[in-house]
Amino acid sequence: MHHSLSQKQLTEQYIPYALAGVWCLMQFMLLRHFGIVTNGESVKYLEEARFVDRHGYFSEPKYLFYSGYIALHWIFYKTGAGIIGVYVFQLFWNALSMICFYQLSLHLTGQKGMAATGTLLLVLFWPYQSWTTHLYTESFFTSTIIIALHQWFGAAKSRVTTWTGIAMAALLIISRPTGMLFI
Question: What is the Cβ-side half-sphere exposure of residue 81, based on CA atoms within 13 angstroms?
Fold first, then answer.
């Protein structure tokens, strides 16, 4: 008895790989176009991480609501990975959020084609993806939103996903002041 995959099954089997390939190409093009952007908004997070390192506290209370992102900068500053470490982490976090977006879309629609199309559109949305190369809070915050939504509404419920969902909510709150809207 010979079992073969239909054309549709074969296509659906390779969707994640195709999306990953397009994502890699997009990130390569963005890095080539922008480089790692450390001016503008980036400066205050880089400087605040150094301030916290020297003094052990924030220079202003408002930075409490950015403390998750400042901590990210601080960790990579202390390890010597610096801005490259922050960029690589943002790249990883964005990739994880794209996986979560696909899985959440699949969970909500029940259709692989629709989930793949939605994910492809998000991967190809140049302005959104360009935040990965900018060391601003936007990339970290929006990726965290997608990962959190996946944990809250798309992942199979378990003790791990419950605690991960709570951790994502806490991370949203300390990533940007607008994270408070997720309480």
Answer: 12
Are 151 and 161 spatial neighbours (Cβ–Cβ below 8 Å)? Answer: yes
42, 36 in Cβ contact below 8 A?
A: no
End-to-end CA distance of the chain: 56
Q: Tell me which residue of 175, 125, 110, 117 sits closest to 147, measured CA to CA.
A: 175
Among 3-7, 59-63, 133-137, 166-170, the minimum mean pLDDT is found in 3-7
Instruction: Express each pLDDT in 30-70 by its tens digit.
Output: 999 999 999 999 999 999 999 999 999 999 999 999 999 99
Long-range contacts of 37-46 (CB under 8 A, 24+ apart): 37/133, 37/134, 37/135, 37/136, 38/83, 38/135, 40/134, 40/136, 41/134, 41/136, 41/137, 42/134, 42/135, 42/136, 45/69, 45/70, 45/73, 45/135, 45/136, 45/137, 46/73, 46/77, 46/83, 46/135
Element housing 11 (H / E): helix 7-34
Residues 6+ apart with CB under 8 A from 71: 49
Cα separations in angstroms, 150 against 72, 107, 140: 22, 9, 15
H-type alpha helices, 56-125: 67-79, 82-109, 112-124
* Both structure tokens of 141: 């915050």
